[in-house]
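As a representative case, the lines below give one protein's residues and C-alpha coordinates.
***
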Amino acid sequence: MSVMLLIEKSSMGIVSLYVKILRRKPEKIYKWEQIKEDEELGTAAYPMVLVQVPMFNEKEVYKLSIGAVSSLEWPSDRLIIQVLDDSTDLTTRDLVQKECDKWRRKGINIDYISRDNRNGYKAGAMKEAMEIPYVQLCEYVAIFDADFQPAPDFLVRTVPFLVHNPDIGLVQARWKFVNADECLMTRIQEMSLNYHFKIEQQSGSYTAAFFGFNGTAGVWRIAAIIQAAGWKERTTVEDMDLAVRATLVGWKFVYIGNIKKVTLGKKFHLLYNFFFARRIVSHNVTFFFYCVVIPLSVYFPEVKIPLWGVVYIPTIITILNAVGTPSSFHLTFFWILFENVMSWHRCKAVFIGLTEAERANEWIVTEKLGDMIKTKPIINVVNKIRTKFWDRYNFSELGIGICLMVCASYDYAFRTDHYFVYIYPLSISFLIMGFGYVGTFISK
Protein backbone atom coordinates (compact mmCIF):
# COMPACT_ATOMS: atom_id res chain seq x y z
CA MET A 1 0.00 0.00 0.00
CA SER A 2 2.92 2.36 0.68
CA VAL A 3 4.30 1.64 -2.81
CA MET A 4 0.86 2.25 -4.33
CA LEU A 5 0.68 5.56 -2.51
CA LEU A 6 4.18 6.51 -3.68
CA ILE A 7 3.28 5.80 -7.32
CA GLU A 8 0.07 7.79 -6.98
CA LYS A 9 1.78 10.81 -5.42
CA SER A 10 4.66 10.72 -7.88
CA SER A 11 2.44 10.55 -10.97
CA MET A 12 0.36 13.51 -9.83
CA GLY A 13 3.50 15.44 -8.92
CA ILE A 14 5.03 14.83 -12.36
CA VAL A 15 1.89 16.05 -14.12
CA SER A 16 1.68 19.17 -11.95
CA LEU A 17 5.38 19.90 -12.48
CA TYR A 18 4.92 19.54 -16.23
CA VAL A 19 1.98 21.95 -16.15
CA LYS A 20 3.95 24.48 -14.12
CA ILE A 21 7.17 24.34 -16.14
CA LEU A 22 5.45 24.59 -19.53
CA ARG A 23 2.86 27.03 -18.16
CA ARG A 24 -0.02 24.95 -19.42
CA LYS A 25 -2.73 27.20 -18.05
CA PRO A 26 -6.37 26.26 -18.72
CA GLU A 27 -6.65 29.25 -21.10
CA LYS A 28 -4.09 27.54 -23.36
CA ILE A 29 -5.84 24.19 -23.33
CA TYR A 30 -9.46 25.29 -23.62
CA LYS A 31 -11.05 28.10 -25.56
CA TRP A 32 -11.46 31.25 -23.49
CA GLU A 33 -12.66 34.65 -24.64
CA GLN A 34 -13.87 37.48 -22.48
CA ILE A 35 -17.61 38.06 -22.64
CA LYS A 36 -18.54 41.60 -23.64
CA GLU A 37 -21.70 43.58 -24.23
CA ASP A 38 -22.97 43.52 -27.81
CA GLU A 39 -24.08 46.70 -29.58
CA GLU A 40 -27.35 45.04 -30.61
CA LEU A 41 -27.89 42.58 -27.77
CA GLY A 42 -26.54 44.74 -24.96
CA THR A 43 -26.23 42.78 -21.71
CA ALA A 44 -28.13 39.88 -23.31
CA ALA A 45 -24.74 38.81 -24.67
CA TYR A 46 -24.02 37.62 -21.12
CA PRO A 47 -25.53 34.27 -20.08
CA MET A 48 -27.89 34.17 -17.12
CA VAL A 49 -26.01 33.05 -14.03
CA LEU A 50 -27.48 31.81 -10.76
CA VAL A 51 -25.46 32.26 -7.56
CA GLN A 52 -26.26 30.10 -4.53
CA VAL A 53 -24.98 30.80 -1.02
CA PRO A 54 -26.04 28.01 1.40
CA MET A 55 -25.66 28.92 5.07
CA PHE A 56 -26.55 27.67 8.51
CA ASN A 57 -26.36 29.93 11.59
CA GLU A 58 -23.52 31.92 10.03
CA LYS A 59 -23.89 34.94 12.30
CA GLU A 60 -20.25 36.00 12.05
CA VAL A 61 -19.71 35.72 8.28
CA TYR A 62 -23.07 36.26 6.55
CA LYS A 63 -22.36 39.95 5.84
CA LEU A 64 -19.01 39.15 4.26
CA SER A 65 -20.36 36.43 1.97
CA ILE A 66 -23.54 38.26 0.92
CA GLY A 67 -21.58 41.45 0.31
CA ALA A 68 -19.01 39.58 -1.80
CA VAL A 69 -21.51 37.85 -4.11
CA SER A 70 -23.53 41.08 -4.43
CA SER A 71 -20.39 42.84 -5.66
CA LEU A 72 -19.62 40.37 -8.46
CA GLU A 73 -18.81 41.99 -11.79
CA TRP A 74 -21.72 40.81 -13.92
CA PRO A 75 -24.73 42.64 -15.42
CA SER A 76 -27.34 42.85 -12.68
CA ASP A 77 -30.12 41.84 -15.07
CA ARG A 78 -28.20 38.64 -15.94
CA LEU A 79 -27.53 37.58 -12.35
CA ILE A 80 -29.78 35.99 -9.74
CA ILE A 81 -28.51 35.44 -6.19
CA GLN A 82 -30.10 32.90 -3.85
CA VAL A 83 -29.23 33.00 -0.16
CA LEU A 84 -30.29 29.57 1.13
CA ASP A 85 -30.62 30.05 4.86
CA ASP A 86 -31.30 26.93 6.92
CA SER A 87 -30.51 28.69 10.19
CA THR A 88 -32.25 27.37 13.28
CA ASP A 89 -31.36 30.52 15.23
CA LEU A 90 -34.21 32.97 14.57
CA THR A 91 -32.06 36.00 15.37
CA THR A 92 -29.47 34.98 12.79
CA ARG A 93 -32.19 34.27 10.25
CA ASP A 94 -33.63 37.75 10.76
CA LEU A 95 -30.21 39.37 10.36
CA VAL A 96 -29.52 37.47 7.12
CA GLN A 97 -32.89 38.44 5.68
CA LYS A 98 -32.33 42.11 6.51
CA GLU A 99 -28.92 41.98 4.83
CA CYS A 100 -30.52 40.58 1.69
CA ASP A 101 -33.17 43.33 1.79
CA LYS A 102 -30.41 45.94 2.03
CA TRP A 103 -28.73 44.72 -1.16
CA ARG A 104 -32.07 44.33 -2.92
CA ARG A 105 -32.74 48.02 -2.33
CA LYS A 106 -29.43 48.72 -4.07
CA GLY A 107 -30.70 47.02 -7.21
CA ILE A 108 -29.24 43.54 -6.69
CA ASN A 109 -31.49 40.65 -7.75
CA ILE A 110 -31.15 38.68 -4.52
CA ASP A 111 -33.66 36.15 -3.20
CA TYR A 112 -33.72 35.12 0.47
CA ILE A 113 -34.91 31.51 0.83
CA SER A 114 -35.46 29.74 4.14
CA ARG A 115 -37.04 26.41 5.06
CA ASP A 116 -38.92 25.20 8.10
CA ASN A 117 -36.84 22.00 8.07
CA ARG A 118 -33.31 20.84 7.24
CA ASN A 119 -34.23 17.86 5.09
CA GLY A 120 -31.21 16.82 3.07
CA TYR A 121 -29.11 19.53 4.72
CA LYS A 122 -27.11 21.53 2.15
CA ALA A 123 -28.00 19.23 -0.76
CA GLY A 124 -31.69 19.45 0.14
CA ALA A 125 -31.59 23.24 0.25
CA MET A 126 -29.88 23.53 -3.15
CA LYS A 127 -32.15 20.91 -4.70
CA GLU A 128 -35.31 22.75 -3.62
CA ALA A 129 -33.89 26.09 -4.75
CA MET A 130 -33.12 24.68 -8.22
CA GLU A 131 -36.82 23.83 -8.63
CA ILE A 132 -37.94 27.48 -8.45
CA PRO A 133 -39.30 28.48 -11.92
CA TYR A 134 -36.93 31.41 -12.54
CA VAL A 135 -33.94 29.04 -12.36
CA GLN A 136 -34.97 27.75 -15.81
CA LEU A 137 -33.77 31.08 -17.21
CA CYS A 138 -30.20 30.39 -16.00
CA GLU A 139 -27.52 28.39 -17.80
CA TYR A 140 -24.95 28.24 -15.02
CA VAL A 141 -24.89 28.18 -11.25
CA ALA A 142 -22.02 29.42 -9.06
CA ILE A 143 -21.90 28.02 -5.53
CA PHE A 144 -20.18 29.66 -2.57
CA ASP A 145 -20.19 28.55 1.05
CA ALA A 146 -20.82 31.18 3.69
CA ASP A 147 -17.10 31.39 4.59
CA PHE A 148 -16.04 32.01 0.99
CA GLN A 149 -15.70 35.53 -0.39
CA PRO A 150 -15.21 35.48 -4.18
CA ALA A 151 -13.20 38.18 -5.90
CA PRO A 152 -15.32 40.65 -7.94
CA ASP A 153 -14.03 39.21 -11.26
CA PHE A 154 -14.76 35.58 -10.30
CA LEU A 155 -17.54 35.08 -12.87
CA VAL A 156 -15.65 37.05 -15.53
CA ARG A 157 -12.74 34.59 -15.24
CA THR A 158 -14.68 31.32 -14.93
CA VAL A 159 -17.90 31.49 -16.96
CA PRO A 160 -16.15 31.88 -20.39
CA PHE A 161 -14.76 28.34 -20.04
CA LEU A 162 -18.32 27.03 -19.89
CA VAL A 163 -19.62 29.33 -22.63
CA HIS A 164 -16.96 28.42 -25.20
CA ASN A 165 -16.44 24.72 -24.32
CA PRO A 166 -19.73 22.79 -24.38
CA ASP A 167 -18.14 19.61 -22.97
CA ILE A 168 -17.10 21.27 -19.70
CA GLY A 169 -19.54 20.77 -16.83
CA LEU A 170 -17.67 22.39 -13.94
CA VAL A 171 -15.08 25.11 -13.46
CA GLN A 172 -13.50 24.84 -10.02
CA ALA A 173 -11.52 27.78 -8.65
CA ARG A 174 -8.83 27.58 -6.03
CA TRP A 175 -9.29 28.78 -2.47
CA LYS A 176 -7.36 31.54 -0.81
CA PHE A 177 -6.87 31.41 2.96
CA VAL A 178 -7.33 34.75 4.70
CA ASN A 179 -6.20 33.35 8.07
CA ALA A 180 -3.32 31.13 6.93
CA ASP A 181 -0.82 33.05 9.06
CA GLU A 182 -3.05 33.12 12.15
CA CYS A 183 -1.17 30.36 13.98
CA LEU A 184 0.77 27.14 13.52
CA MET A 185 -2.43 25.13 13.10
CA THR A 186 -3.73 27.25 10.21
CA ARG A 187 -0.32 27.08 8.51
CA ILE A 188 -0.41 23.29 8.73
CA GLN A 189 -3.96 23.14 7.41
CA GLU A 190 -2.95 25.38 4.51
CA MET A 191 -0.21 22.89 3.59
CA SER A 192 -2.70 20.02 3.42
CA LEU A 193 -5.26 21.96 1.38
CA ASN A 194 -2.69 23.48 -0.97
CA TYR A 195 -1.56 19.98 -1.92
CA HIS A 196 -5.17 19.10 -2.69
CA PHE A 197 -5.61 22.14 -4.93
CA LYS A 198 -2.17 22.50 -6.54
CA ILE A 199 -1.40 18.83 -7.10
CA GLU A 200 -4.49 16.61 -6.93
CA GLN A 201 -6.97 18.89 -8.65
CA GLN A 202 -4.52 20.40 -11.12
CA SER A 203 -3.30 16.99 -12.29
CA GLY A 204 -6.87 15.71 -12.55
CA SER A 205 -7.87 18.76 -14.58
CA TYR A 206 -4.93 18.58 -16.99
CA THR A 207 -5.33 14.85 -17.70
CA ALA A 208 -9.12 15.28 -18.07
CA ALA A 209 -9.41 12.48 -15.53
CA PHE A 210 -11.38 13.41 -12.42
CA PHE A 211 -11.27 15.66 -9.40
CA GLY A 212 -13.98 16.24 -6.86
CA PHE A 213 -16.06 19.38 -6.58
CA ASN A 214 -15.05 21.24 -3.42
CA GLY A 215 -18.61 22.30 -2.62
CA THR A 216 -17.74 25.98 -3.04
CA ALA A 217 -15.99 28.36 -5.45
CA GLY A 218 -17.21 26.40 -8.46
CA VAL A 219 -19.46 27.17 -11.43
CA TRP A 220 -21.62 24.34 -12.76
CA ARG A 221 -23.36 24.04 -16.09
CA ILE A 222 -26.94 23.48 -15.00
CA ALA A 223 -27.43 21.01 -17.86
CA ALA A 224 -24.66 18.86 -16.36
CA ILE A 225 -26.37 18.86 -12.96
CA ILE A 226 -29.67 17.88 -14.55
CA GLN A 227 -28.13 15.08 -16.63
CA ALA A 228 -26.37 13.74 -13.54
CA ALA A 229 -29.80 13.52 -11.84
CA GLY A 230 -29.29 16.61 -9.66
CA TRP A 231 -28.42 16.96 -6.01
CA LYS A 232 -28.96 13.84 -3.93
CA GLU A 233 -29.87 13.83 -0.26
CA ARG A 234 -28.50 10.32 0.30
CA THR A 235 -25.10 11.53 1.50
CA THR A 236 -23.52 14.43 3.36
CA VAL A 237 -20.70 14.59 0.79
CA GLU A 238 -23.12 15.85 -1.83
CA ASP A 239 -20.40 17.76 -3.70
CA MET A 240 -18.31 14.65 -4.39
CA ASP A 241 -21.43 12.59 -5.11
CA LEU A 242 -22.58 14.97 -7.85
CA ALA A 243 -19.06 15.24 -9.31
CA VAL A 244 -18.79 11.44 -9.63
CA ARG A 245 -22.16 11.12 -11.35
CA ALA A 246 -21.42 14.02 -13.72
CA THR A 247 -18.06 12.46 -14.63
CA LEU A 248 -19.66 9.09 -15.36
CA VAL A 249 -22.00 10.64 -17.94
CA GLY A 250 -19.07 12.27 -19.71
CA TRP A 251 -18.66 15.83 -18.46
CA LYS A 252 -15.18 17.35 -18.11
CA PHE A 253 -14.04 19.44 -15.17
CA VAL A 254 -11.59 22.32 -15.36
CA TYR A 255 -9.56 23.54 -12.43
CA ILE A 256 -8.88 27.51 -12.03
CA GLY A 257 -21.96 19.16 -25.79
CA ASN A 258 -21.33 16.35 -27.23
CA ILE A 259 -21.98 14.20 -24.21
CA LYS A 260 -20.91 10.58 -24.41
CA LYS A 261 -20.53 7.74 -21.94
CA VAL A 262 -17.09 7.47 -20.41
CA THR A 263 -14.79 4.58 -21.21
CA LEU A 264 -14.23 1.59 -18.95
CA GLY A 265 -10.64 2.79 -18.42
CA LYS A 266 -11.83 6.16 -17.13
CA LYS A 267 -14.28 4.47 -14.77
CA PHE A 268 -11.45 2.29 -13.44
CA HIS A 269 -9.22 5.34 -13.02
CA LEU A 270 -11.98 7.10 -11.08
CA LEU A 271 -12.47 4.16 -8.72
CA TYR A 272 -8.77 3.47 -8.25
CA ASN A 273 -7.29 6.96 -8.23
CA PHE A 274 -9.88 9.00 -6.37
CA PHE A 275 -11.57 6.49 -4.08
CA PHE A 276 -9.22 3.58 -3.45
CA ALA A 277 -5.78 5.22 -3.50
CA ARG A 278 -6.61 8.66 -2.10
CA ARG A 279 -9.43 7.86 0.30
CA ILE A 280 -8.85 4.29 1.52
CA VAL A 281 -5.17 3.47 1.02
CA SER A 282 -3.85 6.91 1.99
CA HIS A 283 -5.71 7.21 5.30
CA ASN A 284 -5.22 3.57 6.30
CA VAL A 285 -1.47 3.62 5.61
CA THR A 286 -1.04 6.87 7.54
CA PHE A 287 -2.85 5.62 10.64
CA PHE A 288 -2.44 1.83 10.80
CA PHE A 289 1.15 1.65 9.56
CA TYR A 290 2.68 4.72 11.18
CA CYS A 291 0.51 4.90 14.32
CA VAL A 292 -0.14 1.20 14.99
CA VAL A 293 2.18 -1.24 13.18
CA ILE A 294 5.49 0.60 13.71
CA PRO A 295 4.85 1.42 17.42
CA LEU A 296 3.65 -2.13 18.24
CA SER A 297 6.58 -3.71 16.39
CA VAL A 298 8.89 -2.63 19.23
CA TYR A 299 7.45 -5.49 21.33
CA PHE A 300 8.36 -8.12 18.73
CA PRO A 301 12.11 -8.37 18.04
CA GLU A 302 11.48 -10.91 15.27
CA VAL A 303 9.53 -8.30 13.26
CA LYS A 304 11.85 -6.41 10.90
CA ILE A 305 10.32 -3.52 8.95
CA PRO A 306 12.49 -2.69 5.91
CA LEU A 307 14.18 0.69 5.94
CA TRP A 308 12.55 1.70 2.65
CA GLY A 309 9.15 1.26 4.27
CA VAL A 310 10.00 3.20 7.42
CA VAL A 311 12.17 5.99 6.00
CA TYR A 312 12.61 6.25 2.24
CA ILE A 313 9.04 6.01 0.94
CA PRO A 314 7.53 8.13 3.77
CA THR A 315 10.19 10.80 3.17
CA ILE A 316 9.48 10.98 -0.57
CA ILE A 317 5.71 11.08 0.00
CA THR A 318 6.13 13.82 2.60
CA ILE A 319 8.27 15.96 0.28
CA LEU A 320 5.77 15.53 -2.58
CA ASN A 321 2.98 16.68 -0.28
CA ALA A 322 4.86 19.62 1.21
CA VAL A 323 6.05 21.21 -2.05
CA GLY A 324 2.58 22.67 -2.59
CA THR A 325 3.31 25.29 0.07
CA PRO A 326 7.05 26.07 -0.16
CA SER A 327 6.79 29.01 2.25
CA SER A 328 5.83 26.56 5.01
CA PHE A 329 8.30 23.82 4.12
CA HIS A 330 10.12 24.33 7.43
CA LEU A 331 6.93 23.30 9.22
CA THR A 332 6.88 19.87 7.54
CA PHE A 333 7.70 18.03 10.79
CA PHE A 334 4.67 19.54 12.55
CA TRP A 335 2.54 18.89 9.49
CA ILE A 336 3.47 15.18 9.58
CA LEU A 337 2.39 14.90 13.22
CA PHE A 338 -0.87 16.75 12.52
CA GLU A 339 -1.65 14.50 9.53
CA ASN A 340 -1.02 11.39 11.60
CA VAL A 341 -3.46 12.51 14.28
CA MET A 342 -6.04 13.53 11.68
CA SER A 343 -5.66 10.15 9.94
CA TRP A 344 -7.41 8.59 12.94
CA HIS A 345 -10.53 10.64 12.22
CA ARG A 346 -10.25 10.14 8.45
CA CYS A 347 -10.06 6.38 8.90
CA LYS A 348 -13.17 6.47 11.07
CA ALA A 349 -14.95 8.54 8.41
CA VAL A 350 -14.00 6.04 5.69
CA PHE A 351 -15.31 3.04 7.64
CA ILE A 352 -18.45 4.86 8.75
CA GLY A 353 -19.18 5.75 5.14
CA LEU A 354 -18.36 2.33 3.68
CA THR A 355 -20.44 0.46 6.27
CA GLU A 356 -23.23 3.07 6.21
CA ALA A 357 -23.08 3.23 9.97
CA GLU A 358 -25.49 5.33 12.02
CA ARG A 359 -23.43 8.52 11.69
CA ALA A 360 -22.94 8.19 7.91
CA ASN A 361 -25.61 10.79 7.14
CA GLU A 362 -25.00 13.07 10.09
CA TRP A 363 -24.27 16.67 9.11
CA ILE A 364 -22.15 18.72 11.52
CA VAL A 365 -21.48 22.30 10.47
CA THR A 366 -18.21 23.92 11.54
CA GLU A 367 -18.83 27.30 13.14
CA LYS A 368 -17.14 30.10 11.19
CA LEU A 369 -15.74 32.97 13.22
CA GLY A 370 -14.97 35.47 10.45
CA ASP A 371 -13.20 38.47 11.98
CA MET A 372 -14.75 37.93 15.41
CA ILE A 373 -11.45 37.05 17.06
CA LYS A 374 -9.92 40.34 15.91
CA THR A 375 -12.93 42.60 16.41
CA LYS A 376 -14.46 41.18 19.62
CA PRO A 377 -11.65 39.47 21.53
CA ILE A 378 -12.94 40.12 25.04
CA ILE A 379 -16.69 39.66 24.80
CA ASN A 380 -17.09 36.57 22.65
CA VAL A 381 -13.87 34.59 22.67
CA VAL A 382 -12.44 32.97 25.75
CA ASN A 383 -9.61 30.53 26.22
CA LYS A 384 -11.15 28.51 29.01
CA ILE A 385 -11.94 24.85 28.76
CA ARG A 386 -15.45 23.45 28.56
CA THR A 387 -17.11 22.73 31.87
CA LYS A 388 -18.50 19.23 31.36
CA PHE A 389 -15.91 16.54 31.97
CA TRP A 390 -16.93 14.41 28.98
CA ASP A 391 -16.78 17.47 26.73
CA ARG A 392 -13.45 18.63 28.08
CA TYR A 393 -11.25 15.84 26.71
CA ASN A 394 -11.04 13.74 23.54
CA PHE A 395 -10.68 10.29 25.02
CA SER A 396 -9.82 8.39 21.85
CA GLU A 397 -6.81 10.64 21.22
CA LEU A 398 -5.79 10.38 24.88
CA GLY A 399 -5.95 6.57 24.72
CA ILE A 400 -3.87 6.40 21.55
CA GLY A 401 -1.40 8.94 22.95
CA ILE A 402 -0.88 6.93 26.15
CA CYS A 403 -0.37 3.69 24.19
CA LEU A 404 2.19 5.39 21.96
CA MET A 405 3.99 6.80 24.99
CA VAL A 406 4.30 3.30 26.46
CA CYS A 407 5.57 1.93 23.12
CA ALA A 408 8.15 4.72 22.82
CA SER A 409 9.37 4.16 26.40
CA TYR A 410 9.71 0.40 25.82
CA ASP A 411 11.64 1.02 22.61
CA TYR A 412 13.96 3.46 24.38
CA ALA A 413 14.62 1.05 27.24
CA PHE A 414 14.91 -2.32 25.48
CA ARG A 415 15.39 -1.86 21.71
CA THR A 416 18.08 -0.42 19.47
CA ASP A 417 16.04 0.62 16.42
CA HIS A 418 15.48 4.19 17.72
CA TYR A 419 11.81 4.22 16.74
CA PHE A 420 11.19 6.21 19.92
CA VAL A 421 12.60 9.31 18.17
CA TYR A 422 9.47 9.26 16.02
CA ILE A 423 6.97 7.70 18.43
CA TYR A 424 7.51 10.16 21.30
CA PRO A 425 6.57 13.29 19.26
CA LEU A 426 3.63 11.37 17.76
CA SER A 427 2.42 10.46 21.24
CA ILE A 428 2.70 14.08 22.40
CA SER A 429 0.69 15.20 19.37
CA PHE A 430 -2.18 12.84 20.20
CA LEU A 431 -2.09 13.97 23.84
CA ILE A 432 -2.17 17.65 22.85
CA MET A 433 -5.27 16.98 20.76
CA GLY A 434 -6.74 14.79 23.48
CA PHE A 435 -6.41 17.41 26.19
CA GLY A 436 -7.97 20.03 23.92
CA TYR A 437 -5.00 22.36 23.67
CA VAL A 438 -5.67 23.05 19.98
CA GLY A 439 -8.27 25.60 18.92
CA THR A 440 -10.24 28.39 20.53
CA PHE A 441 -13.33 27.85 22.64
CA ILE A 442 -16.18 30.25 21.99
CA SER A 443 -18.42 31.25 24.87
CA LYS A 444 -22.14 30.87 24.35
Observations:
- The chain has two domains: 1-23+268-357+386-439, 25-175+214-259.
- DSSP finds 16 helices and nine strands in the chain.
- The two ends are 45 Å apart (CA to CA).
